[in-house]
């Protein structure tokens, strides 16, 4: 039996998939120590894992920092993660000396879990609660101007903080290397291979196990009135205006509505028909989705996975780049549509078109067959893995470097043949065209590669 250490950031969407896995490992006789935060203490202890509180390592936040974290600022999240890593360094040094973990399970966004595993040379498995993202699948993420600006203007701050890690024995190239997926790290992804964008580009170190769930409910979709469920997740959910707009647009229809608003929305300020609209701080989402005919969602990965698992089509309202990636894929498979300004017509379109239910049902079967918790634990028990296989991404990068060189050699030759005439114009046009041209060539190469391998 193994000594296994779990690490996760203080977020429900990242912690929840790890809980059924921790319980299954304990039931199989493994010793599990779960390093987390008091907000999740009760849930973790219910799995029979040993809970280790890390609250004392959290930094005191200013109002400005707290606001940035609530708005999913990549810069602020990175800086705070670095601070926690440094604060936990001496504590984890003593913990690892005493407990001697055989394996670390770390959330993909948990710097202190990943970096500690690397520093102490402990095998680790990454828990990925979004899609697995590499240079291909990340094309699904469309960042807003605000998100791009946050990253660009935050780079100097992040670089400064990263340098502090060196003196503690943590060697990091850049922040991207800490959060991106590579083909050499054992990784769990809580979706199916067919739902994952560009799944073929990921090596066999990746296990696509579908949703990690405690409970399973029988579908109950036939009601006198259709049931609409609305939730904006657990982070950016203080959307009083949005909830009221949904109520105003939908409550006069022949439907029932359940809304989960979180703990910070003043429910008494919402105006609604109490016979048809039911509003709660939180609900058992899986149980509600087993009955719902439509889910209006922020497109968090767990929410979308649970919705598909319960064959519930969706009206998609993403708020971050990762959520936009999940929304795009959900739309591609025909299980939902993007919300436009007309909530009523969008909702009615889904409720009155059985094709959306059919598509969601198809992926329900796909998710069920992916193996879930038991497959995830089987994979963990066999870790670490050593596999000799072709890395499609590395091969693709070699091809990209080659095509880039050839592309610019052709442009230089063209300018030379024209004796420099129109050189500036050709150069500008070549620069503007270089990305779309090389992207198209890359995709052609990728299609050939996946056929050959």
From TrEMBL:
Cited InterPro entries: Glycosyltransferase_28, UDP_glucos_trans, UDPGT_MGT-like
GO-annotated biological processes: antibiotic biosynthetic process
Transmembrane segments: 405-435
Keywords (A to Z) from UniProt: Membrane, Transferase, Transmembrane, Transmembrane helix
UniProt-recorded Gene Ontology molecular function terms: hexosyltransferase activity; UDP-glycosyltransferase activity
The UniProt record lists the keyword Zinc: no
The family this protein is said to belong to: Belongs to the UDP-glycosyltransferase family.
Protein name in UniProt: Glycosyltransferase, MGT family
Species this chain originates from: Kandleria vitulina DSM 20405
């Amino acid at each position: 039996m193994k000594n296994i250490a779990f690490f996760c950031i203080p977020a429900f969407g990242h912690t929840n998939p790890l809980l059924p896995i921790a319980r299954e490992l304990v039931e199989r006789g493994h010793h599990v120590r779960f390093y987390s935060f008091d907000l999740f203490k009760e849930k973790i202890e219910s799995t029979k894992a040993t809970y280790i509180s890390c609250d004392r390592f959290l930094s005191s936040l200013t109002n400005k920092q707290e606001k940035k974290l609530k708005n999913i600022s990549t810069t602020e999240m990175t800086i705070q993660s670095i601070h926690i890593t440094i604060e936990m360094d001496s504590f984890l040094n003593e913990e690892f000396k005493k407990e001697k973990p055989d394996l670390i399970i770390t959330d993909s966004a948990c710097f202190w879990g990943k970096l500690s595993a690397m520093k102490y040379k402990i095998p680790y498995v990454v828990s990925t609660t979004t899609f697995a993202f590499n240079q291909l699948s990340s094309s699904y993420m469309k960042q807003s101007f605000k998100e791009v600006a946050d990253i660009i203007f935050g780079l100097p701050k992040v670089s400064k903080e990263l340098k502090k890690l060196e003196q503690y024995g943590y060697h990091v190239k850049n922040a991207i290397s800490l959060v991106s997926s590579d083909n050499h790290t054992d990784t769990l992804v809580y979706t199916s291979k067919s739902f994952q964008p560009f799944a073929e580009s990921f090596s066999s170190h990746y296990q696509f196990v579908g949703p990690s769930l405690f409970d399973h409910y029988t579908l109950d979709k036939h009601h006198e009135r259709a049931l609409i469920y609305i939730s904006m997740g657990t982070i950016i959910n203080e959307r009083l205006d949005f909830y009221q707009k949904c109520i105003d647009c939908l409550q006069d229809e022949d439907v029932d509505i359940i809304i989960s608003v979180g703990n910070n929305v003043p429910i008494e300020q919402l105006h609604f028909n109490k016979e048809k609209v039911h509003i709660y701080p939180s609900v058992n989402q899986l149980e509600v989705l087993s009955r719902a005919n439509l889910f209006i969602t922020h497109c968090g990965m767990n929410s979308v996975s649970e919705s598909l698992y319960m064959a519930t089509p969706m009206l998609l309202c993403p708020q971050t780049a990762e959520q936009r990636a999940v929304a795009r894929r959900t739309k591609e498979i025909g299980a939902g549509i993007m919300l436009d300004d007309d909530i009523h017509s969008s909702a009615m379109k889904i409720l009155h078109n059985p094709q959306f239910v059919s598509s969601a049902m198809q992926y329900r079967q796909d998710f069920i067959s992916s193996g879930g918790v038991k497959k995830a634990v089987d994979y963990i028990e066999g870790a670490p893995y050593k596999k000799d296989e072709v890395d499609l991404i590395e091969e693709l990068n070699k091809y990209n470097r080659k095509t880039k060189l050839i592309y610019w050699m052709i442009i230089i030759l063209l300018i030379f043949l024209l004796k420099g005439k129109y050189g500036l114009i050709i150069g500008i046009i070549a620069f503007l065209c270089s990305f779309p041209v090389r992207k198209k060539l890359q995709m052609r190469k990728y299609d050939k590669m996946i056929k050959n391998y």
